[in-house]
Amino acid sequence: MKRCEVAIVGAGLAGLCAARALKSMGIDFLLLEARDRLGGRILTSDEHGMPTDDGFDLGPSWFWPMMQPDMADLVSELGLQSFSQNNNGDVIFERMSREGPQRYRPVEQQGKSLRLTGGSAALVRALERDIPADRIRLNTHVSAMALTGEGVEITLKTPDGMAAVVHASKVICALPPRLLEANVTFTPPQEQSTLARWRDTPTWMAPHAKFFAIYNRPFWRDDGLSGTAQSMVGPMVEMHDATLANGKAALFGFIGIGADQRAALGDEALKKACLAQFARIFGAGASEPRSTLLKDWAADPLTATSRDRLATGHLSAEDANSLSGLWGQRLFMAGSETSAIEAGFLAGAVAAAKRAVLAVVSPG
What is the Cα–Cα distance from 157 to 174, expressed in whole angstroms? Predict the structure, then answer.
């Protein structure tokens, strides 16, 4: 049986931040991740959909340093470069199908949104450098947790399909509460009120899909357009310039139709409809991209549960970390959805990890 002082379940941004913090304190830990990669919903790919060091963010892409000081501090501490989201030019609004897209001069925004040079995966790469490789277990699914006299016994399914057990004094759970409730069996059981709260906490990005079209150049800028558009016609409801810091041009949009309807349409029909919408809004040149990318997070079982197939609005700032009873001193929540600030966002993951680590190392 493998033993450690702290087991961290989930190697997205929150889990990586928690691991880095524990390493700096000299606390023994294991970082357990079900995927075959680090980063969770942070996923940066090239135009062919392969992970890359400089590409397009299929998951979260923005942060706002003026409003998210924890995130700004982390980016600075890691020595990462960032650049402003392109907002120069007019925006387009599609109100209804029987009238053409309308063009507007945007109002000056407060607090510019930034993107990381290289994509959000730059965060993952930088944090990984501070975490010993022998403390990371990929392709490792946590299926059960049981309290013992000395801590928590964690049952795993390893890459070879075999069962294994890790014993930890404490556990930091750095994944969305809904995934925890759906996939992990607890002994003794969590209180019903806790399970209900986890089930009712929406997972950020889980109901959504993003579509990218990559071009030889950002031609929409020639027409004085920012690349930003909103639509009540669809299939995309919100669109933005996704051009990289290196100049590789792209547009992306959030798809507004539901997960079940997306699945019924199929990827090819959906891509075709999205390109037709880009052409309506940004001109005929938009219908001939170099390549396209589609990431449907609702179809990702390591992000979404059946409850996530319906978008249920924004997260509340409820403290979902507090556990009562026997689990209260052993299990600590660190997923972004549990943060009291910026829940669901990258900044929420940073804040939640800080709070969880503090709780783990505090006496009592």
Answer: 18
